[in-house]
Amino acid sequence: MKTASNYAKQIFCIEGDWHPDLRQKDTIENALKFMETASGMKIKYIHRHCSTEEELRNRINEYNKRRYNSFSIFYLAFHGVPNGLKLSPKTILSLEELAEMAENKLRNKIVHLGSCETLNINKKNIKKFLQTTGALCISGFKKEVPFVSSTIFDVLYFEMCQYYKQIHVIEKHMKSYYGKMMKELDFVMVYE
Predict the structure, then answer these.
(1) pTM here?
(2) Measured at the alpha carbon of residue 20, what is the angle toward residues 93 and 73, in degrees to the nearest 5?
(3) Tell me, what's the pLDDT at 152?
(4) 113, 119 in Cβ contact below 8 A?
(5) Which of 106, 123, 152, 163 could pair with 133 as two cysteines, CB 3.0-4.6 Å apart?
(6) 91-94 β-sheet, strand order
(7) pLDDT digits (tens, 9 = 90+) for 6-36
(8) Could you read off the pLDDT of 105-126 as tens digits, one per residue?
């Protein structure tokens, strides 16, 4: 059974640009700030932007350093497509390419893809991601989801991750408390 090292799970977040118009201010960082300052949560985070494969590779290599071991949730917030993250309007990174980039670098991490449709693929391919990266779990959405609803759901999910070490128990409680939302957003958790 897959088990996290600690109850407290800090977040290492990499976020893409949501709009080509830089005057738009959509960001999930506000949700991260809320989780860090909300009474009872106090979830620390690191937040960085990224729009190229090279930047993402560098961020993953940095994240793999020992000083970030307590940041056990790896949160990738990008536009998505089935089996991919849109790093930019013209650059799509497949889940397989992401796995190769992060090979053996996500040991004991919960990987959450805050992106539309990325996990709308064969479960076998998702499990291959887990094997290649060493991640405890990968979670995300199988369909297109609204920005606000999915961000609120992410906050609820990250909070639930703080209470349990065993991944299957996190999933069980998510279904118990937020099962309807999980279905509406087509949220999945895959682990071994």
Answers:
(1) 0.94
(2) 45
(3) 96
(4) yes
(5) 106
(6) 79-81, 84-88, 91-94
(7) 678 999 999 998 766 667 777 899 999 999 9
(8) 999 999 999 999 999 999 999 9
